[in-house]
Design brief:
mainly beta
Length: 96
């Protein structure tokens, strides 16, 4: 399957750890969530949560270019997951 590398500008407001229960095994698991503001919609900005990779638990609030992949949850829902974050002021654009 083709995987296209995409950078998305996001604003992280808060990062928190969430303990959830696996619906199949009943066992608890930890998940990192980032409350984000994203733009590009017809009605402006929207606010929501995205899953962070475990290595990003030290992420702080601010503007970032996020590298995102799709993953399937335990309930078989396809969701985006942030793999890496680059502070928005420190990235080279494709035009340079």
């Amino acid at each position: 399957m083709l995987n296209i590398d995409r950078k998305h500008l996001i604003q992280i407001l808060e990062v928190r750890s969430v303990v959830a229960t696996n619906s199949k095994t009943g066992l608890p698991f930890d998940s990192l969530r980032a409350e984000c503001v994203v733009s590009g919609f017809e009605d402006g900005e929207r606010r929501g949560e995205m899953i962070l990779a475990a290595g990003l638990k030290t992420a702080q609030s601010g503007f970032y270019f996020a590298h995102i992949e799709l993953e399937v949850t335990h309930d078989r829902i396809v969701v985006p997951r942030i793999l890496s974050l680059i502070p928005a002021g420190k990235i080279e654009t494709d035009e340079e």
